[in-house]
Design brief:
The protein is of the alpha/beta class. The protein is built from seven helices and five strands; from the N terminus they run E-H-H-E-H-H-E-H-H-E-H-E. A five-stranded parallel sheet has the order 3-2-1-4-5. Strand 4, helix 7 and strand 5 form a beta-alpha-beta unit.
Length: 146
């Protein structure tokens, strides 16, 4: 099985690295070791890349270069899984089921869930509340370093 990292994981660890002396890469590696089996593949979805890049474009000029370096490092480190017809079919089903139940989670979380489900993967997130509403999705809460 593999794991798709939700944007919330990357943002939370990046914020934590600013507040400690531990580098982001070390926080991420330690967190993934505590959360996942050693042999699991790890990737991000195209929507996660978009959400991170959106943060670069919204950053003030004083923070933009640091944020851009962080995002480009993530994109270079993890494979990005594209949104394709297989993911679109799963996304449409998830969306219909959630709307039918009167409980939606938002477009980006649906897209991340559909991407993970298209591979039979789990989603690693800080925000389990939204993802837990999606039937058939395996959700794992990130275990940050102690």
């Amino acid at each position: 099985m593999g794991a798709l990292l939700d944007t919330s994981v990357l943002v939370a660890l990046e914020r934590r690295s600013r507040d400690t002396t531990t580098a982001f890469g070390q926080l991420l590696a330690t967190s993934l070791e505590r959360t996942l089996a050693a042999e699991e593949e790890v990737a991000i979805s195209a929507i996660t890349a978009s959400e991170l890049l959106h943060g670069v474009h919204r950053a003030t000029s004083e923070h933009r270069s640091r944020r851009e370096a962080f995002v480009e490092g993530i994109i270079a480190t993890f494979p990005t899984i594209p949104f394709d017809l297989r993911v679109a079919r799963i996304h449409a089903r998830i969306w219909a089921e959630l709307v039918g139940a009167g409980s939606d989670v938002g477009a980006h979380d649906r897209l991340i869930a559909a991407t993970a489900m298209s591979f039979g993967w789990q989603v690693v997130t800080v925000n389990t509340k939204h993802f837990a509403k999606i039937a058939g999705l395996s959700v794992v809460q990130l275990m940050p370093p102690a």
